[in-house]
Design brief:
With 92 residues, the protein is mainly α. Helix content is 39%, strand content 9%. The chain has a two-stranded antiparallel sheet. A hairpin with a 4-residue loop joins strand 1 and strand 2. The mean pLDDT is 89.
């Protein structure tokens, strides 16, 4: 079978959709070693708060997302971008 190139537009849309509309940063953490998205309790970190929780893949239990900045604004931008892509796809 020929090598299938990923559709970069779909990948970008997926990122915007996930982090702009679906990701619950109050209760979920990004933990690559644990399969991706997990409850914050799974990585031993408190729930709540606006910051993104990202477990360090090299040091379990360490949150490298503590310096995330203006998360609500980033989420709004990602949401807006996802909605713009949906609108553009429907128009074409």
């Amino acid at each position: 079978a020929p090598f299938m190139q990923p559709c970069l537009g779909k990948i970008l849309y997926g990122i915007f959709l996930r982090y702009g509309m679906q990701f619950d940063n109050r209760n979920q953490a990004v933990a690559i070693q644990r399969g991706g998205f997990v409850p914050k309790e799974t990585v031993g970190l408190p729930t709540g708060g606006e910051l993104w929780t990202v477990e360090d893949p090299q040091q379990s239990g360490r949150d490298i997302g503590t310096s995330s900045y203006r998360v609500a604004e980033v989420r709004r931008c990602f949401q807006s971008a996802a909605l713009s892509l949906i609108k553009a796809a429907r128009a074409s």
